[in-house]
Amino acid sequence: MSEQLLPISAQDVYDAEEAIRGAVKRTPMEKSVTLSEITGAECWLKFEIFQFTAAYKERGALNRLLALPEDTKGVIAASAGNHAQGISYHAGRLGIPATIVMPEGTPFNKVKRTEELGARVVLTGKDFEEATKAAYELADKENLTFIHPFDDPLVMAGQGTVGLEMLQDVPDLDTLVVPIGGGGLISGVATIAKHLRPKIRIVGVQTEAFPAMKEKMDGTQLAGDNISIAEGIAVNQPGERTQNVVRQLVDEIVTVPERAIEAAIITIMEIEKVVVEGAGGIGLAAVMTHPELFQGHKVGIVLSGGNIDSRMLANAIMRGMARDGRLARLRITMMDQPGALALVTDIVANVGTNIIEMRHQREFGALSLKQTEMELVVEAKDQEHALRLVRALEEADFKVDYAKTV
Fold it and tell me: Where is the ACT domain positioned along the sequence (predicted)?
């Protein structure tokens, strides 16, 4: 099928680049030496987290807003957060009233930030699909222009400028790894990338919780549970236009488990010293989960957004430490006698580990009235360090049940 039958062309992406130039950042494209060593792929990162709204979404939002007629009464959008902020920020710059409909479970930081950017926020619907329905109804009622977050040619073309910049900066990339929710980003990126390098490989990534685009392409039912840390790509119904592009230009779609996304967020934070949201980390999660697809290749990875809820980030950090063995939970059974508790804490100190949490109980769990039980959460350098503590406690005749905290 020819390129002319697609909803957008490479020229549309070039036009979008011209339209948004100066109002949207040209974000860095940098090689990660450490991630390359870890994954076996030559990893180049596109830092869209450095946009004003901390996500690529403002590219497509602005490109669409600039095409509105002068008599537009206002715009409305349905969004889990990043499209909302892109619309709000640039609509405010252009003097266009904006209303954003968000699902009821949207993280507070995204709601607050959208309101701070000047938009009216309406929280309704349990998911993106219900919020979208409500947004269409409100658009009809108030005569507002609905701006779709992904299934709009101007939005798709604007998002495609991400891929254009990636290949302008690193022309010999042979693989691009792109998050997929509704498909707007990968549609724009694939359109321009295949124009510039017809043999380049485009790999889309979805969370196992929301595999809708992969299901559409493969004709499968993967039964995602719709519970994801990657709210930005939590979409059950991808766009009709984007499906057309993905079917023709995307080489493969892979899925990754939620734990892989969590691990990628922490890996990026610890190695690159930047914070990404779930959708922003899923590209690296794919490279780490499916190494056979990427090792030996020169890979461009889109860090699509950095708007993660602070509480969620804190939980991800703690769970990441647990997975690495840097946090461990110990259940210690001891004789109920003076000095036993002090001996345990002395051993912890001598081994060089650190007590994060402690619970000492007599009433539950112990095998005998003469015994007591202590539960410790300890911080260690790594799993081997935690095991050294276990061995030291056992050598002191304590019974120890050891488990990572997750």
Answer: 329-406
CB-count burial class (<10 Å; 0-12, 13-18, 19+) for 403: exposed
- Over pLDDT 70: what percentage of the chain? 95
Of the candidates 202, 251, 260, which has an alpha carbon nearest to the alpha carbon of residue 230?
A: 260
Alpha-carbon gap, residue 280 to 302, rounded angstroms: 7
Both ends of the chain: CA-CA distance in Å? 49
The contacts of residue 11 (CB under 8 Å, 6+ apart) are none
What gap in Å lies between CA 185 and CA 177, rounded to an integer? Answer: 11
Cβ neighbours, 10 Å, residue 388: 15
**In 3-state terms, what secondary structure has residue 307?**
coil
What are the structure tokens assigned to 163, written together?
């891929």
Q: Quick one: how far is CA 106 from the chain centroid? A: 14
Alpha-carbon distance 247 to 336, whole Å? 67
Q: What is the pLDDT of residues 31-52, one digit of tens each?
A: 999 999 999 999 999 999 999 9
Length, in residues, of the chain: 406
> What are the structural domains, with CATH classification, of the chain?
3-55+153-320 (3.40.50.1100), 57-146 (3.40.50.1100), 325-404 (3.30.70.260)
Give the number of other CB atoms < 10 A from CB of residue 236.
15
